[in-house]
Design goal:
The complex is a heterodimer.
Chain A lengths: L11 E10 L5 E2 L1 H9 L9 E6 L9 E7 L2 H14 E8 L13 E9 L1 H7 L3 H15 L3 E5 L4 E6 L3 H7 L6 E2 L1 E9 L12 E3 L2 E7 L4 H8 L11 H15 L4 H8 L4 H4 L4 H13 L9 E7 L2 E6 L8 E5 L2 E5 L2 H5 L7 E3 L7 E4 L6
Antiparallel strand pairs in A: 1-10, 1-16, 2-9, 3-8, 3-10, 4-6, 4-7, 5-6, 11-12, 12-13, 13-14, 14-18, 15-16, 15-17
Helix pairs in contact in A: 1-5, 6-7, 7-8
Chain B lengths: L14 E5 L9 H5 L5 E4 L4 E4 L9 H5 L5 E5 L12 H13 L4 E2 L14 E3 L20 E3 L22 E3 L3 E3 L9 H14 L3 E2 L16 E5 L8 H6 L2 E5 L10 E3 L6 H7 L7 E3 L9 H14 L6 E6 L4 H10 L4 E5 L8 E2 H6 L4 H14 L7 E5 L5 H10 L3 E4 L1 H7 L21 H4 L4 H25 L15 E3 L4 H7 L2 E2 L3
Parallel strand pairs in B: 9-19, 10-11, 11-12, 12-15, 15-16, 16-18, 18-19, 20-21
Antiparallel strand pairs in B: 1-4, 2-3, 5-17, 6-20, 7-8, 13-14
Helix pairs in contact in B: 4-14, 8-10, 11-14
Classes of the chains: A alpha+beta, B alpha/beta.
């Protein structure tokens, strides 16, 4: 019998795309779907997904949980748990459209939640950490329930299928966001489980990823020391946890985090000026276990921004384009040109060089 | 001439010296080279004679015979065969009945226990992830040992502050393990020190203090503090790059050491700070460490003494509850823990202890690394393993299981000329390594010795890079603890569980 994702590690090739409005203006999901559809041949119909930021303005102070359920029992158990830990502002079935390309869907529910204050206080952690622990609890302890999105004013949408079909299934043309990322998956096996698709998200951080990292088990065993549990055995999950750990728990900037994951070579560091040398030597030494090697290109989504990053040898393609207040990033130039043929500039960043775009003035 | 030995005490020699008389020119090189006095020239017979009962099979004569006239073969003299009462068992019994003494041995446990290194296989990239060619791309084997911080700190301008505790920087993930001056010679120590300097790594003084000539190699020296505290004083502690507290040794867990007075020469006596010719006996325990909280006090005493500028290492033998011990050491303030496996070498150990106490380093390493991770403190301490690292593949496997770096002792001695005759305790090492006899010591040229060590470690480092590149890994920290890169072969479920790896084919 084939093993489900999480029971077995499945390498994947992929396509990724992302876009952000630097002035914070919003647009619906049509462009990002068009962009990822161009790279159809980079995925094989076994996983597609999107992350969108700024899509739930009416609930922007609530954690939006998107949850897959395999069974009624799993739903009951998870909802009991949610009731015990959160105030529920709204809950409903995830709006989807029945299309022939997407089948075998699990039950998909969406909740807007606020953690119960006395529970948070008793745990002696901040709200984010409390929510993070609740998500970990549901995903590891309740069989058949899987929270695949848990941030505020953002959401991940994913399924088994080609990404363009997944976008139609989730009716992404009806959402308006200031930033979008997308992913088309080419796994080397047939997991047939929706949780394994990208993006992988934890709180506000979402990651789409193309590559197969060779440092996986070193990274996994290291990040699991800090309260994370890698249940999917995918690179993306490990990378998302690393970003969350470095940024949320260690207080690093996204740029610092990029320098940990795709650190410069020692030979490069030795030629830097003293100040840089000290910084990079420190970062490589102190966070050595979180260095990510092997091919990857990722787009990290977070509140108010996107970061594109390649592995330090640049073993995966990644192109960045900019036009006015819009920035684009994708595995292939064609995926950008299809939505913006006339660009102000377009370039391929170097391996290990993070490209970061933030909404000017930040996001409320 | 043969000495008289009572027939009950007679033990047949292990080896036979075979001399091809057609080739032998009676140049007497073998006679001059053999400190065991196996060979001599019989002028009546006009030919070379040998007494194989004295032969330890160090291959010195074989290596130097100009006409290739000599070979040493296993003596096929036999008792009535038994799978239980084997020849060596009977021999040892005879020896003990004759002397009433404990059996002594040297170097590592030679018995037939499983070698887990040989039951693990390494991964390589195919299609989904490119392998990397170390001749064309950077391939990094630099390692820092020491405690890592729990959180990043910034100054008022937001600049990241270097809040690291003292670290050891290794350009190769290999260090030379503790071998004391006294157990090994001045020239052997000098070779190790010079090689460590050239390789950008460290050698270890062992428990015998640091010879005054070698203080110049301080930046590449780890100074050891063992239960005998030989040669320990302020300058010694300050001379090294790190201080190692030796609690135990893989070859003889739970017992101390004994350097016979004949090895305590003028120089050894000055270095160890003990009277010349007196036996140097290290107690079994440190008499100021009867528990883990005492260890913590010694760790901090040494840190205080050196102004918190040097990492403190704690070395223990791999014993049954090593994981819990390691956890205690990590919480005791040590920066680096060394685990020495039961195959680890020694200059002298009671045979029964060497061959029956302790556990394989592979299992100890896997369980210690996992325990430290389960407790969330793996980042607080670096993990170094030793006790029979034989080649670069062993190193790759050790790092993939979770080690930061390895110690090599026996392999380094072999590079210096040791032929594993395992008679260091006799003090008559024909290769000038495990001896203090001036005429033997001078046979080891430190410049040549250092070069051979550099050659060995450089070759291994290149092989490590090649293997890493094959896996698509270009920095050794991405190999550390990366157990998915290993598969077991012919191992039981339990063994796989302890090693934390899958079986080949899974």
């Amino acid at each position: 019998m084939l093993m489900r994702e999480g029971e077995v590690r499945i390498p994947s090739g992929c396509a990724i795309s992302g876009m952000i409005s630097l002035d914070g203006s919003k647009q619906n999901g049509e462009d990002i779907m068009k962009s990822i559809a161009v790279m159809h041949d980079r995925s094989n119909g076994l996983g597609g997904g999107f992350a969108a930021y700024g899509i739930y303005p009416e609930f922007k102070n609530f954690y939006a949980f998107h949850v897959f359920y395999d069974s009624r029992r799993a739903k009951d158990e998870a909802e009991n748990f949610i009731n015990e830990h959160f105030e529920i502002a709204s809950m409903s079935v995830m709006p989807t459209k029945t299309i022939k390309e997407i089948t075998n869907e699990p039950m998909i529910w969406r909740y807007f939640l606020k953690p119960l204050v006395y529970k948070v206080e008793r745990t002696q952690v901040d709200e984010d950490e409390f929510v993070f622990r609740c998500v970990m609890s549901i995903n590891t302890k309740i069989d058949g329930a899987y929270v695949f999105s848990s941030g505020k004013d953002m959401g991940s949408f994913k399924a088994v299928g080609y990404p363009e079909d997944v976008g139609r299934f989730y009716r992404l043309d009806e959402y308006e966001g200031y930033s979008w990322t997308a992913h088309g998956r080419y796994p080397t096996n047939t997991p047939g489980w929706w949780g394994g698709a990208h993006p992988f998200s934890v709180l506000d951080t979402s990651v789409v990823h193309n590559g197969e990292i060779s440092s996986y088990d070193a990274n996994r065993r290291s990040i699991e020391m800090f309260g994370y549990k890698c249940t999917l055995l995918t690179d993306t999950e490990a990378i998302a946890y690393i970003v969350d750990y470095l940024v949320r728990k260690q207080g690093m900037t996204h740029e610092d985090a990029a320098h940990v994951m795709a650190a410069p070579f020692w030979s490069t560091i030795e030629n830097m000026n003293e100040e840089e040398k000290e910084y990079y030597t420190y970062i490589r030494n102190a966070y050595a276990s979180l260095l990510v090697t092997g091919p990857f290109s990722i787009i990290v989504g977070y509140k108010g921004g996107l970061m594109a990053l390649n592995d330090r040898l640049k073993l995966r393609s990644m192109v960045i384009g900019q036009k006015g207040n819009k920035a684009y990033m994708a595995s292939e130039e064609s995926a950008i040109r299809i939505i913006e043929p006339e660009l102000d500039k377009i370039w391929a960043p170097l391996g290990g060089e993070p490209v970061i775009f933030n909404v000017k003035g930040g996001v409320e | 001439m043969r000495e008289f030995v009572s027939p009950q005490n007679f033990v047949p020699s292990d080896f036979e010296v075979v001399r091809n008389s057609d080739r032998c020119i009676a140049c007497r090189v073998c006679e001059r080279q053999c400190a065991n006095e196996v060979h001599w020239y019989d002028s009546d017979l006009g030919k070379m004679i040998s007494d194989e009962t004295k032969c330890v099979n160090c291959h010195r004569c074989v290596s130097l015979c100009p006409t290739r006239a000599l070979k040493i073969v296993k003596n096929n003299d036999t008792y009535r065969p038994s799978a239980n009462w084997t020849g060596p068992v009977i021999d040892q019994l005879i020896r003990q009945s004759g002397t009433g003494g404990a059996l002594l041995s040297s170097m590592g446990n030679p018995e037939k226990y499983p070698i887990y290194w040989d039951k693990m296989l390494i991964n390589a990239s195919q299609v989904t992830n490119p392998s990397i060619d170390p001749l064309r791309e950077p391939m990094e084997t630099r390692v820092f040992l020491g405690k890592k911080p729990d959180a990043i700190e910034r100054d008022e301008n937001g600049k990241v502050i270097n809040n690291l505790d003292p670290q050891l920087k290794l350009d190769v993930p290999v260090m030379f393990s503790a071998m004391s001056y006294g157990a090994i010679s001045y020239n052997a120590h000098k070779s190790l020190a010079m090689a460590a300097k050239e390789l950008g790594t460290y050698y270890n003084t062992g428990e015998g203090g640091l010879h005054k000539d070698f203080y110049q190699y301080g930046p590449n020296t780890i100074v050891q503090v063992a239960s005998g505290r030989f040669g320990v004083y302020k300058d010694y502690l300050e001379a090294g790059a790190a201080i190692e507290i030796k609690i135990g040794q893989g070859a003889k867990p739970g017992i101390g050491g004994h350097l016979p007075g004949q090895k305590v020469t003028v120089d050894v006596s000055q270095t160890r700070m003990i009277p010349m010719g007196s036996d140097a006996i290290s107690p079994a325990p440190h008499h100021d460490i009867y528990s883990i909280e005492d260890l913590r006090q010694l760790v901090f005493t040494l840190k205080e003494a050196t102004a918190y500028k040097k990492p403190v290492i704690v070395k223990v033998a791999a014993v049954h509850n090593v994981a819990a011990i390691a956890s205690g050491i990590a919480r005791g303030g040590a920066d680096i823990i060394v685990i020495d496996g039961f195959r680890g070498g020694t200059g002298a150990a009671p045979t029964r202890i060497r061959d029956s106490v302790g556990i394989p380093i592979e299992l100890a390493l896997a369980s210690v690394d996992q325990r430290l991770r389960d407790e969330g403190i793996r980042n607080h301490i670096s993990l170094v393993v030793g006790g029979s690292i034989r080649n670069s593949a062993d190193i790759v496997k050790a790092i993939a299981l979770g080690a930061d770096a390895v110690y090599i002792g026996t392999a380094a001695l072999i590079a210096l000329g040791c032929h594993q005759c395992r008679n260091c305790h006799g003090g008559k090492c024909n290769w000038g390594i495990a001896t203090q006899r001036a005429d033997l010591v001078k046979r080891l040229n430190p410049e040549i010795g250092a070069q051979r060590l550099v050659n060995l470690v450089t070759a291994w480092n290149n092989e490590i890079k090649e293997i890493m590149g094959g896996m698509g890994i270009n920095s050794i920290e991405s190999l550390r603890g990366n157990r998915l890169m290993l598969r077991g072969i012919g191992l039981t479920e339990k063994e796989l569980e302890i090693l934390g790896i899958k079986h080949a084919g899974e």
